């Protein structure tokens, strides 16, 4: 029989409780928005593909110009393929209404109608995510800070394991917790900076805003490097964005 000490059991219960609370709170926050007309828009992947490849007459550029022909990302621009449609649509909405600030993406998002945003989100969600839901062994020592943060968290600072919310291998969980396992350290750092400056919405219970305040640049470098090893990629060749491209979905 596997025996768990009180400290391990307590942390496991706390982690489960955090995710349950986040899901409940996010549902409550999203409830008023569900009544809005845009919440019921159903996206068409076929229509979204046309926008991704050719842009729109209203001035939105082709997404593929910066994010790659198949949403694989390019230098300075993150990969979009395989992200949850709900997450992508919400980020586009936030970019359009200014609750997520990004000089490059904001004009593009504003040029998209609610239907356009739903279509683009549906298209990219239909593409395969380039990483797999793999989990590394639980680290026994803190000689690998990245593995420790991703698989165990740093509870002394109130930081849950990345895997607790973003899934094994950072593949994402639902519409609230995006895939992060293929992001570069530079892009992660740019988003942490955005949360710390109040330039983007911090998610369920404001969790990422709180976590961002506690992550150091060294932490972020370690997490990105660990994910790169876990997926057999080099951090320098990841398709995610760098800090030079501010706050894109």
Detailed description of the structure:
The chain has helices spanning 6-34, 45-54, 64-67, 85-97, 105-110, 114-126, 145-151, 162-166, 185-196, 207-212, 217-230. The chain has 249 residues and is mainly α. Helix 7 packs across helix 11. Residues 1-6, 18-38 and 234-249 have low confidence and may be disordered.
Q: Radius of gyration, rounded?
A: 18 Å
Number of helices: 11
Mean pLDDT: 82
How many individual β-strands? Answer: 0
From the N-terminal CA to the C-terminal CA, the straight-line distance is 45 Å
How large is the share of residues in beta strands?
A: under 5%
Order of helices and strands: HHHHHHHHHHH
Largest sheet: none
Secondary structure class reads: mainly alpha
The percent of residues in helical segments reads 40-55%
Low-pLDDT runs: 1-6, 18-38, 234-249
General shape: globular
Give the helix/strand layout:
Layout: H1 6-34, H2 45-54, H3 64-67, H4 85-97, H5 105-110, H6 114-126, H7 145-151, H8 162-166, H9 185-196, H10 207-212, H11 217-230
Helix pairs in contact: 2-6, 4-6, 7-11, 9-11
Write a compact overview of the structure shown.
Helix content is 48%, strand content 0%.
């Amino acid at each position: 029989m596997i025996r768990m000490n009180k400290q391990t059991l307590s942390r496991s219960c706390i982690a489960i409780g955090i995710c349950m609370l986040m899901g409940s709170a996010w549902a409550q926050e999203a409830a008023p928005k569900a009544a809005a007309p845009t919440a019921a828009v159903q996206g068409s992947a076929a229509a979204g593909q046309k926008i991704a490849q050719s842009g729109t007459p209203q001035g939105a550029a082709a997404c593929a110009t910066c994010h790659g022909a198949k949403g694989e990302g390019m230098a300075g621009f993150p990969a979009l393929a395989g992200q949850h449609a709900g997450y992508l649509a919400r980020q586009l909405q936030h970019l359009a209404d200014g609750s997520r600030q990004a000089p490059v993406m904001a004009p593009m998002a504003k040029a998209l109608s609610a239907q356009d945003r739903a279509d683009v989100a549906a298209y990219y969600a239909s593409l395969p995510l380039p990483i797999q839901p793999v989990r590394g062994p639980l680290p026994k020592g803190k000689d690998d800070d990245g593995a420790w943060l991703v698989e165990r968290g740093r509870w002394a600072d109130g930081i849950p394991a990345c895997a607790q919310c973003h899934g094994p291998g950072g593949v994402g969980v639902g519409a609230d917790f995006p895939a992060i396992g293929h992001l570069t350290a530079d892009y992660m750092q740019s988003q942490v900076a955005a949360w710390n400056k109040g330039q983007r919405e911090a998610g369920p219970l404001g969790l990422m805003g709180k976590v961002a305040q506690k992550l150091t640049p060294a932490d972020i470098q370690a997490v990105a490097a660990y994910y790169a090893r876990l997926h057999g990629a080099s951090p320098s060749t990841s398709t995610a964005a760098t800090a030079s491209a501010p706050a894109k979905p």
